[in-house]
Design brief:
The chain is of the alpha+beta class and 145 residues long. It has helices at 5-19, 27-31, 34-37, and strands spanning 45-50, 53-61, 64-71, 74-81, 93-100, 103-115, 121-130, 136-142. The chain is globular and about 35 Å long. The termini are far apart.
């Protein structure tokens, strides 16, 4: 029995398509909300700050966030982006970058116990670095999915 080349190609394509296996899931992927495993920001919302300043962050979808930093009687509004988890960073650290008040900004949120300036215990610390401004450190509340 002789098979034509086209028939062989069709047969092989069908067999290979049926043999494709999905990427293996890790334990870390199973413990996360599906949108986080897919690369979407792990920050649905964050509210926090320190002595004399406050930051509010809200996810707008697909790794983007609206943010507002209030300090020294001024409010710096802007957008922050979650570019994904840095390979060498601990899993408890979330890094957002973008602009606040037209100034480059980096916001680092870390899932850890933190006591704010009023003595209230929270489950996250926050560090805000903006060009031309002192670094701000504080505590806050990270919403979870």
């Amino acid at each position: 029995m002789t098979m034509r080349p086209i028939a062989v190609a069709v047969l092989l394509t069908g067999l290979l398509a049926g043999c494709a296996t999905p990427a293996a899931k890790t334990v870390a992927d199973e413990s996360r909300h599906p949108s986080i495993a897919a690369g979407v920001s792990p920050v649905p919302a964050f509210s926090g700050g320190g002595a004399g300043w406050r930051i509010e962050i809200t996810s707008t979808g697909q790794g983007n966030h609206d943010a507002s930093l209030s300090a020294e009687g001024r409010t710096h509004k802007g957008t922050l982006r979650y570019p994904g988890q840095p390979a060498d960073a601990p899993s408890s650290l979330i890094v957002l970058n973008g602009e606040l008040g037209r100034q480059p900004a980096i916001v680092e949120i870390k899932r850890e116990s933190c006591r704010n300036a009023e003595g209230v215990d929270t489950m996250a610390s926050v560090h805000v670095t903006m060009e031309g401004q002192p670094q701000r450190r504080g505590c806050g509340h990270l919403a979870v999915y």
